[in-house]
Amino acid sequence: MQESFDPASGAGSILSSGRYIQLGPFQIDQQREEITRDGERLKLQGKVYQVLMALLEKPGEVVTREELRIRLWPAETHVNYDANVNTTVNKLRLALGDSSDKPVYIETIPRKGYCLLVRPEASSMPKVAAPQLVEVEQQQEVSPSNQTRRKLGVRITFSMVLLILAGMLIGAAITTFWIMHFAPEARWH
Predict the structure, then answer these.
(1) Banded pLDDT at 108 (limits 50, 70, 90)
(2) What is the structure's pLDDT at 136?
(3) What are phi and psi of 76, to 5 degrees?
(4) 53: exposed, middle or buried (C-beta count within 10 Å: 0-12, 13-18, 19+)?
(5) Chain centroid to CA 111: how far?
(6) What's the mean per-residue pLDDT of the chain?
(7) What is the pTM of this model?
(8) 1 assigned to some structural domain
């Protein structure tokens, strides 16, 4: 769980503090304009990335809808700004795995704008995902397929045993039928 950001701590220049910005499990590379989560690249459209940057510029403070409108669309652009701001912020929330109902990263300030809830950290070096964490995640991903393979193996083994038993019973029935009808001298007395 991320700690809430206190705007009084004075980290307003976070974007100029380093190439990389850490935001929980996310890493933003400002030079390449991309965001990764635990090393996996997320696809953010240009305007969605710009909203993220606007929030990072003022962590813990309200970024107004008007500020976002000015930043995202030139004055001569004719669009429904309210709907487009909402859609763009919702796309960012979706990428971050956040929700407006129980926000972790982005809080909606009704009729005003949005606020970044977590403290970003700047760095000049990229954060590398810890190998043991990646390995654990990979094991968790593999476990369901191993379980499926085991179940399939048990089913195949059970089916083979049933086929062998069925074959033996059919063979015994055919043998008994043949002896009873075609080899009367071989009957048991």
Answers:
(1) very high
(2) 44
(3) -85, 0
(4) middle
(5) 30
(6) 78
(7) 0.58
(8) no
* Judgement on whether residues 88 and 41 belong to the same structural domain of the protein: yes
Angular region, 175: left φ>0, alpha ψ -120 to 50, beta rest:
alpha
* pLDDT (average), residues 1-13: 45
The residues with which 28 forms a beta bridge, in sequence order, are 21, 35
pLDDT in tens, 68-95: 888 887 777 666 777 788 888 999 999 9
Assess contact for 106 and 92: CB atoms under 8 A.
yes
Residue 58, CA distances (Å) to 9, 84, 127, 169 in order: 12, 21, 23, 79
- Number of residues assigned to the chain: 189
- What's the token pair of residue 45? 């459209």
* Residue with tokens 């991320």, as numbered in its chain: 2
Q: Summarize pLDDT for 166-188 with one digit per residue, the tens.
A: 889 898 888 888 787 777 665 55
116 and 166 co-located in one domain: no
Please check whether residue 120 is in contact with residue 21, taking contact to mean a CB–CB distance below 8 angstroms. yes
Same domain, 138 and 111: no
> Where is the domain boundary, 73, 91, 123?
123
Domain that holds residue 107: 7-123
Per DSSP, helices labelled H in the chain are 46-57, 65-72, 81-96, 131-182
At residue 116, does pLDDT exceed 60?
yes
On whether residue 2 sits in a domain, the answer given is no
